[in-house]
C-alpha cells in the first residue's frame, strides 16, 4: 500500500472518531455552557425558596413583636394602682354645715389618699389616668338645721349624672346617706360630686368621697 493511501485511511479514521452517533461534532465548550445554565437555574430556584422562607420568618417576627408590644402595654396598665379618698377639712358648723350653691362641684380639700394623682383638690374632679373599671363611693351627712333643706348630692361622669344620695333632718338631727357605683372610664374622663339639693353639707369625717381602679382595660 502506498504512503498516499495510508494517509487517506488514517485521516478517514480520525474524522470518524470525531463524529457522534447523530453525526454532529459536540465541542467541550458546548457542554460547559449547558452545565452553567443548569447551575444558574438551580441557584435561582434555591434563592426563591430562601426568600420565601425569610418572608415567612419576617411575618412571624412582626406578629411576635406586635403581640409583645400589646402585652407590655397591658402589663403596664395592670400594674397601675389608682385610688383616692377625700373629704372636707372643716366641720365648724354642724347645724348649717359647709355652704353649698346650686349645682356646685364639691371641692374636697382634705386629701386622705391620692395614689396615681387622679384627684385634683383645686377642681374637685377625678381624672382617670388609665382606661378601666372604677368604683366610687360617697358618704354624706346632712346638717341638723332644717332651714338648710334636704341634702342631695350626685356622682357625675362627664356632666352625666350616674347616681345620687339624699339625706334629711329628722327631729333636728342630721341624717347620713351613701351610694356607690362601678363605671367604665376612658383615660382622661372625669368624675366628680355636685350639689343637687340643699344649702349645706357636714364636713370633717362625715362626708367622704372615695374612688379606685378595679380593673384596667
From TrEMBL:
Signal peptide start and end residues: 1-22
Cellular component aspect of the GO annotation: extracellular region
Subcellular location, record wording: Secreted
Domain spans labelled C1q: 77-217
Keyword set, alphabetical order: Secreted, Signal
InterPro entries registered for this protein in UniProt: C1q_dom, Cerebellin_Synaptic_Org, Tumour_necrosis_fac-like_dom
Primary subcellular site in the record, as a coarse category: secreted
Keyword Mitochondrion included in the entry's annotation: no
Domain of life: Eukaryota
Protein's UniProt name: C1q domain-containing protein
Species assigned in the record: Littorina saxatilis
Amino acid at each position: 500500500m502506498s504512503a498516499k493511501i495510508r494517509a487517506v485511511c488514517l485521516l478517514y479514521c480520525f474524522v470518524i472518531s470525531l463524529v457522534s452517533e447523530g453525526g454532529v461534532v459536540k465541542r467541550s465548550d458546548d457542554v460547559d455552557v449547558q452545565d452553567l445554565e443548569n447551575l444558574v437555574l438551580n441557584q435561582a430556584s434555591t434563592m426563591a425558596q430562601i426568600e420565601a422562607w425569610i418572608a415567612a420568618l419576617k411575618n412571624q417576627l412582626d406578629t411576635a413583636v406586635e403581640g409583645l408590644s400589646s402585652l407590655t402595654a397591658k402589663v403596664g396598665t395592670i400594674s397601675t394602682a389608682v385610688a383616692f379618698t377625700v373629704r372636707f377639712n372643716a366641720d365648724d358648723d354642724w347645724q348649717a354645715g359647709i355652704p353649698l350653691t346650686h349645682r356646685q362641684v364639691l371641692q374636697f380639700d382634705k386629701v386622705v389618699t391620692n395614689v396615681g394623682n387622679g384627684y385634683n383638690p383645686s377642681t374637685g374632679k377625678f381624672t382617670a389616668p388609665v382606661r378601666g373599671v372604677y368604683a366610687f363611693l360617697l358618704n354624706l351627712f346632712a346638717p341638723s338645721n332644717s332651714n338648710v333643706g334636704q341634702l342631695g348630692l350626685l356622682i357625675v361622669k362627664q356632666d352625666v349624672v350616674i347616681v345620687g344620695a339624699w339625706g334629711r333632718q329628722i327631729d333636728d338631727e342630721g341624717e347620713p346617706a351613701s351610694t356607690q357605683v362601678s363605671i367604665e372610664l376612658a383615660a382622661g374622663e372625669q368624675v366628680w360630686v355636685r350639689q343637687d339639693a340643699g344649702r349645706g353639707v357636714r364636713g370633717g369625717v362625715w362626708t367622704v368621697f372615695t374612688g379606685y381602679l378595679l380593673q384596667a382595660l
